[in-house]
Prior knowledge:
The protein is of the alpha/beta class. The chain has one domain (29-112). The protein is built from three helices and six strands, in the order ββββαβααβ. It has helices at residues 52-65, 76-79, 86-105, and strands at 11-12, 26-30, 39-43, 46-50, 73-75, 108-112. The protein has a three-stranded mixed beta sheet. Strands 5-2-6 form a three-stranded parallel beta sheet, sandwiched between helices. The longest helix is centred in the C-terminal third of the chain and has 20 residues, at 86-105.
Amino acid sequence: MPSPLLESPIRCEILEATLDDSPNYIALSYAWDSHEGKVSVICNGSCLTVTPNCARALRQIREIYGKWHAVNVWVDAICIDQGSDTDALGERSQQIQIMGEVYKRATHVIAWLG
């Protein structure tokens, strides 16, 4: 979601789409810095957590691409269920198999190094 301030909370809406019928989107690749803690992201009105590195990348994407309008971003930590139940594990397994296509079909791919 757009925001004029870089440090504003990250807000997003999840849009479900197939690869064959998806809107234009940016795919984000970043390092999972699991030792740094978590940052809250508001997604569809609910709180999710992402790594600080992911949050920094999303803020920069918002600053560059979406300062005044919404931009579609695919990021694994948000778009793939990170839960530990059977459904989440099944989804993650299926999504990992198509990640190459997710990146291939993106209009832009950002490799965030931090």
